[in-house]
């Protein structure tokens, strides 16, 4: 392989940088505000009380669908998804996207895990719930993939598709977590926000680091 193979294509394409960082700022602020609002609480109040009743679809086939979606964020399911992701990146020679994906997922899962005891929010009286790691994992990976594969489209199309698929992925996992009673709706929004804040930064740092590396 020629030297500088890690230089392209980028994990954070220039055409998507403005949209990505708008999402990052919104995600950071949203997660922070929710953390401050719900720290130390243990009941569904306000918007959570309304959304739990609206989103908890416990009848089949919805329960089965929720279980399948939830599996993606479980240890075994996340390993399978990450293997498929890395395989696709290698096949399409998206090395930067692969690196950014691993970094983003590790940071997002680490942050959501670390913020749980810091926030001290409980569900069912004993389980730390804010923010949702499942939602953060799926959002981070989807965000990374979208950045890596939509970068060659025109700006308007690329940004629209980016926002659409990221919101769809986060909403699907968030709904599954609420339906299964694992999280309050605002917990899932918190996990979503953490992922939004992490991915653009991880992708940008990956690009900067990779631009200085070569493969003989």
Please, could you describe this protein's structure?
This protein has helices at residues 17-38, 47-55, 62-73, 75-91, 95-119, 133-150, 155-179, 185-210; strands at residues 122-123, 127-128. With 216 residues, the chain is mainly α. It has one domain. Strands 1-2 form a two-stranded antiparallel sheet. The longest helix is centred in the last third of the chain and has 26 residues, at 185-210. It is globular, with a radius of gyration of 18 Å.
Biggest sheet, open or closed, and with what strands and sense?
Answer: 2 strands, antiparallel
The percent range for helix content is over 70%
List the helices and strands in order. Answer: HHHHHEEHHH
How many structural units, i.e. domains?
1
Number of DSSP helical runs? 8
Beta-strand percentage range: under 5%
Please state the structural category: mainly alpha
Radius of gyration: 18 Å
Q: What integer is the average pLDDT?
A: 92
Shape: globular
Uncertain parts: none
Distance between the termini: 6 Å
Strand order of the largest sheet: 1-2
Strand count: 2
